Amino acid sequence: MALPAYQQEFARLATDMAAGRPSDEGPSPSADPEGGKVELQPGVVLDAPPLGKEFGDVLEGPEASYRPGEQVRVVFASAHPGNELHRDGTYLEVQRRDDSGWTAVADDGDWSTKHHWARRGVAASTATVTWDVPADTTPGVYRVVHHGDAKDVTGRITPFTGASGTFGISAS
């Protein structure tokens, strides 16, 4: 197994870095004839929503209202985030309702948001989205949206989206 070798080298490098000394480069790795990468985690076999739920369903919704400085928390029925890395997109959005519909005010690239994935049993997953309401947040009606991609037993990956109920943000 390659994992113990990687762990050994990571530990050696970390020790050298902490001590402020250069590391020995060691031998060069042999060329990989297949051109593949080393996977340290097993792949996703399949995703399944919790019994009686669909992907994107809200399992724990937000409170009715919040003030700046408080934390909004929503839990969604989800799938493994490794199915699609969303490099050109996002796993979450915080949206504010305006005259034209819904406008994104934060996503997973914002410091105020967090996306926490957890496996629940063999194939079910949850995504917990939190948003620390910034001090300068405009009062109004908001919701949290979660984007994910589920893998079925045949390996087909299907995107899904879920949205929380609305909640208010009041002035501080």
Provide an overview of this structure.
- By secondary structure, the chain is mainly β.
- It has a domain at 58-169: Immunoglobulin-like (Sandwich), CATH 2.60.40.
- 10% of the residues lie in helices and 38% in strands.
- The strands form two sheets. Strands 2, 4, 5, 8, 9 and 10 form a six-stranded mixed β-sheet that branches. It has a four-stranded antiparallel β-sheet with strand order 1-3-7-6, with no helix packed on it.
- The longest helix is centred in the first third of the chain and has 17 residues, at 3-19.
- It is globular, with a radius of gyration of 21 Å.
- The mean pLDDT is 91.
Question: Helices, strands, pairings?
Answer:
Blueprint: H1 3-19, E1 58-60, E2 65-66, E3 71-78, E4 92-98, E5 101-107, E6 113-120, E7 124-132, E8 140-151, E9 157-163, E10 167-169
Family: Belongs to the neutral ceramidase family.
GO cellular component, one term: membrane
InterPro entries: Ceramidase_alk, NCDase_C_sf, NEUT/ALK_ceramidase_C
Structure summarized in a few sentences:
With 172 residues, the chain is mainly beta.
- Helix and strand pattern: HEEEEEEEEEE
Compute the number of strand runs. Answer: 10
Identify low-pLDDT runs: none
Count of discrete alpha- or pi-helical segments spanning 4 or more residues: 1
The helix content, as a percent range, equals under 10%
Q: Terminal Cα separation, in Å? A: 56 Å
- The second-level CATH architecture of the domain at 58-169 is Sandwich
- Please give the radius of gyration in angstroms: 21 Å
CATH superfamily of the domain at 58-169: Neutral/alkaline non-lysosomal ceramidase, C-terminal domain
Shape: globular
Major beta-sheet overview: 6 strands, mixed
CATH topology of the domain at 58-169: Immunoglobulin-like
CATH class of the domain at 58-169: Mainly Beta
Structural class: mainly beta
Average of the residue pLDDT scores: 91
The share of residues in extended strands comes to: 35-45%
